[in-house]
Amino acid sequence: MAKWAQLMLNESNTMTMQFLSLFHDLTLVVIILILFFVSGISLFMMTNKLISDSPIVTMMEVIWTVIPMLILLILGNPIFKYLMLMEESDPYMTFKAMGHQWYWSYEIADTEISFNSYMVPNPWLGEYRLLESDHRMILPYNKNIQTLISATDVLHCWTLPSVGVKADAVPGRLNQVFFQIMRPGVMYGQCSEICGSNHTYMPITVEAIKPEFFYNWIKEMKLEM
Question: What are its GO cellular component terms (predicted)?
Fold first, then answer.
């Protein structure tokens, strides 16, 4: 999760988020190099009195048109790989996240398990402020998971930064995302679409555990219902 004075992105817990972090670093380096290159040429042009005011030759125009196109193609090529990783695949399990004003509800497919997840009030906190919920969504790690996302009232957005997931929750429409959590742990997110006065009080808390522990959790939830 994010920490005070953090400069980089959250620690990745999926392959797609690792790819996004690496792509972010690569793009940032390329942008900085272009900035220094263009700034150097501009400074040279402004300070050198021997620069000719005659029209630039056609070859130079071709070069500074083709090179930016090649840079964009090189940077755009990894995006296709990322889009392929997001393609529909055979999921180990499916659950639905529904956005409400101002909480989330979850339903696990092929079971009768459903529950609401509210933010833990400040007086009860022993965890992170505005990020901890009273009912965490429990998921198995190292398994392909499908998430169906929608809303019942207004626009919301189900976001888990360390997983690399950000999907709009639109009333009357189902959006889907696929991800595979690599390590056990607790991941935090929040609604990323302004949805009313309590928009900041819609935390998303996902806990990844071993598949065998996940089965035990399913059994316990069924007994409680």
Answer: mitochondrial inner membrane
Any residues with CB less than 8 A from the CB of 176 and at least 6 apart, and which? 88, 146, 147, 148, 149, 167
How far from chain centre, in Å, is Cα 171?
21
Estimate to the nearest angstrom the gap between the alpha carbon of 158 and the chain centroid: 9
Which pTM value belongs to this model?
0.77
- C-alpha 117/C-alpha 18 separation (Å) is 28
The one-letter amino acid code at 83 reads L
The token pair that represents 120 in the structure block: 């833990």
Task: Give the whole-angstrom CA distance, residue 190 versus residue 117.
Answer: 12
Q: Which domains does the chain have, with CATH numbers?
A: 15-85 (1.10.287), 93-224 (2.60.40.420)
Angstrom distance (rounded) from CA 59 to CA 65: 10
